[in-house]
Specification:
Layout: E1 14-21, E2 27-32, E3 42-43, E4 45-48, H1 55-67, E5 75-83, E6 87-94, E7 106-112, H2 123-129, H3 132-141
Parallel strand pairs: 1-6
Antiparallel strand pairs: 1-2, 1-4, 2-3, 2-7, 5-6
Length: 142
């Protein structure tokens, strides 16, 4: 029997990162575990904004929780890519690739080229990457 854990948001908004390594030019994506909604789909790191958090604080908290990222010395820049009513998408540029330490929310993570994102892709990530305004903003931030 498969158990799906549905997480409830404390706040109405969510926030997350697209992660890019300057040294390799590759992007980090994680595969959602079968224990969570959208299990098996590849996505960036994201989660709900808790009460009292800013969207950027929530994105960094999710980065720590889901990928074990605790290497602030690698951070080159952070830029806001897109804001909708419910989601704040940021770009996190790191100097070098790092090895993620996954929690139960993800079953795998890979660094990949922009043209070679793994499938199946989470619908929100797919829509984001197909958005011309987002692509222009990413180019401006990189």
């Amino acid at each position: 029997m498969k158990v799906i854990i549905k997480l409830r948001a404390s706040g109405a908004a969510a926030a997350g990162f697209l992660i890019h390594a300057l040294s390799s030019g590759r992007w980090l994506v994680a595969q959602r575990s079968r224990l969570v909604h959208w299990g098996g789909m590849w996505s960036g790191v994201a989660g709900h904004v808790e009460i009292g958090e800013t969207p950027l604080e929530a994105a960094f908290r999710e980065l720590q929780e889901e990928l074990g990222f605790n290497q602030p010395h690698l951070v080159v820049s952070v830029g806001l890519v897109k804001v909708s009513r419910y989601f704040h998408q940021y770009l996190l540029v790191v100097s070098d690739e790092f090895v993620p330490t996954l929690n139960w929310e993800n079953s795998a993570a890979v660094w990949c080229q922009w043209s070679n994102f793994p499938q199946p892709m989470h619908p929100a990530l797919k829509a984001l990457l197909a958005n011309p305004a987002v692509l222009r903003q990413l180019r401006a931030l990189l």
